[in-house]
Amino acid sequence: MGDAIAANVESDLDAVVERCLAVLRQRPSAVLSDIDGTISEIASTPDEATVHRDAHDALVRLMGLIDVVGIVTGRAAEAGEGMVAIPDLLCIGNHGLERRRAGVSWEHPAGVSAVTGIAAALDAIRAGAERAGIVEGIIYENKRLTGTVHYRLAPEPEVARATLLRLAEAASDRHGLRITEGRFIFELRPMVIINKGTAIRDLISEEGLKGVVFMGDDVTDVDGFDTLRAVRDGGDVASLSIGVVASETPRVVYDRSDVRVPGVPAAATLLVRLADRLDEIPRSEGPDGQA
């Protein structure tokens, strides 16, 4: 991590907690978090990732202290729900294309309409990659409403990226999809612009939220950061965007988050300290100590 970037990482977690409390005193309020790279270390494959135990336990505690606690992830909602394993936790999955809460699911019609195209596009990319000899270390993940191609484990990731991008662009054009990128991945999504930012904006409207804290680590989380800045600038909602940063973090995460913490363990500690501080406040009072 370069010196200039490292200087933008907040080492005083208690100071970040105080900023969170300032936002959460605006009721009703929410604590939202991405999963991978935020409360779970990035793993070689999606199935190997696990949620940090301290983060899990802190989220359980926060469920009884905050109006809304939720996950906003690129994983399928059911997969994210199963990974975090907290009953009744809100899980916004597939970058906003679906939700689950207490076993009840909702899927955006645009996502449902793209299911066949997503599967066909992934098959076409796989077939083209195999013809080009790009096989080792490539993972194809069909999440129904979106699809992801992972190339982190390829022997030459940049060579794999060039071939996979060409194939993904052709398949997406053929099936009416759009492509987004993250760390060593391509994602295939419906053409409609739905993302973590639009999902958070919808949640704010539906729940009447007045304060929102959101943690994320990658390019797709920046949509959420931008939405929270916009609603804050509009004077409607207090907000705080927390970038969870590590050696691979894209520069845009530093630039667009309000504060930054150094990695998953720090994010987990932040949640624990936030739960501790909220637990000190009598249930009849808000996070600011006001009745």
CATH class of the largest domain: Alpha Beta
- Strand tally is 12
For the CA atoms, what is the radius of gyration?
Answer: 19 Å
What spatial form do the alpha-carbon principal axes imply?
A: globular
CA distance, first residue to last residue: 44 Å
* CATH topology (fold) name of the largest domain: Rossmann fold
Walkthrough of the structure:
This protein has 291 residues and is α/β, with parallel strands linked by helices. The protein has two domains: 3-107 and 195-279, Rossmann fold (3-Layer(aba) Sandwich), CATH 3.40.50.1000; 112-190, 2-Layer Sandwich (Alpha-Beta Plaits). Helix content is 43%, strand content 20%. It contains eleven helices and twelve strands. The protein has helices at residues 3-6, 13-24, 53-63, 77-84, 109-113, 115-131, 157-175, 196-207, 219-233, 251-256, 264-279; strands spanning 29-33, 68-72, 90-93, 98-101, 104-107, 139-142, 147-150, 177-182, 185-190, 211-216, 238-244, 259-261. Strands 5-4-3-2-1-10-11-12 form an eight-stranded mixed sheet, with helices on both faces. The protein is globular and about 65 Å long. Mean pLDDT is 92; it is low at 1-7.
